[in-house]
Design a protein that fits this description.
Strand order of the largest sheet: 2-5-6-7-8
Number of domains: 1
CATH architecture: Alpha-Beta Complex
Strand content: 15-25%
Structural class: alpha/beta
Bound molecules: iron/sulfur cluster
Shape: globular
Number of helices: 9
CATH class: Alpha Beta
Length: 260
């Protein structure tokens, strides 16, 4: 086995004559999370949950697996936030069942319910469907209802409570409308639940099906597919790289090097 490489970069903590300091436990946890994220396969389809993102060019970069700008990869902290969202979803499912609801989150084979369309190039997996009360008693909501759950920090949660999901979180609203359409769950309003990850308060909102929004989402998806097939780059959303959306975009440098 070869000798371990010594990191001589400034800031590495290496002092000649002294053994290099071992990585901290935090560093090891972060490295483990990043390794796991790298192992996870990239999506080969356009996610139905993403059709409402503001910039179609960014969505095209995402769909085509275009590498993000150096240094813009998801940090280990963000990966932990993503995992928290999944865990909170499981908690919320448990609470809905404790309330007596018959909530279906998995098929018989243990996989999530979902849909594929456009030759399987647009797809999505839903959090669940509420089909009634588990004991057959009258259900307080119309069913079958799509269930979609998010975990939000306090500021985001308060904004959603105040304005409603459609105004406060248009990407989520687009996701809900798309899922209702393709899962044929359009008769009953969807049940959107959001957990305040700071206070653990719960927000429950009924979201009636919006066919025009669902159509707009589908049209956007088709636009991304068609442009990609034609080797065309979709236009930017902004005239300046300082636009708010661009400042937080993972492809900002690449995008602004390319033609408008
Ligand atoms: S930098 Fe701006 S215009 Fe370019 S892909 Fe990102 S959000 Fe869209």
């Amino acid at each position: 086995m070869g000798a371990a490489l010594i990191d001589l970069n400034s800031g590495s903590g290496f002092v000649p004559g002294q053994a290099p300091a071992p990585p901290s436990l935090n560093d090891l946890i972060d490295a483990g999370l990043r390794r796991r994220a790298e192992r996870e396969q990239r999506r080969t389809y356009l996610g139905g949950s993403r059709l409402g993102v503001e910039c179609l060019r960014a969505l095209q970069f995402e769909f085509t697996g275009t590498p993000v700008d150096p240094g813009r990869e998801f940090s280990a902290q963000i990966l932990r936030v993503f995992e928290r969202g999944h865990r909170f979803e499981d908690m919320m499912a448990g609470w809905l069942r404790l309330a007596g609801l018959d909530l279906r989150t998995e098929r018989a084979d243990g996989r999530q319910f979902g849909f594929r369309t456009a030759g399987s190039r647009i797809a999505g997996h839903i959090d669940g469907v509420i089909v009634g009360m588990a004991d057959g008693s009258p259900c307080p909501i119309a069913t079958p209802a799509l269930w979609e759950c998010k975990a939000l920090n306090n500021k985001s949660w308060q904004d959603t409570r105040k304005k409603g999901v459609t105004i406060s979180k248009p990407v989520y609203a687009g996701q809900i409308a798309t899922y209702q359409a393709y899962m044929e769950l359009t008769d009953a309003p969807a049940i959107f639940t959001a957990i305040n990850s700071d206070t653990m308060e719960i927000l429950v909102e009924e979201v009636p099906f919006d066919p025009a929004l669902a159509q707009r989402m589908t049209d956007r998806g088709v636009q991304v597919l068609e442009a990609t097939d034609a080797n065309e780059l979709l236009p930017r959303i902004a005239l300046s790289r300082d636009h708010f959306g661009c400042r937080f975009c993972s492809w900002q440098d690449r995008c602004w090097r390319l033609p408008a």
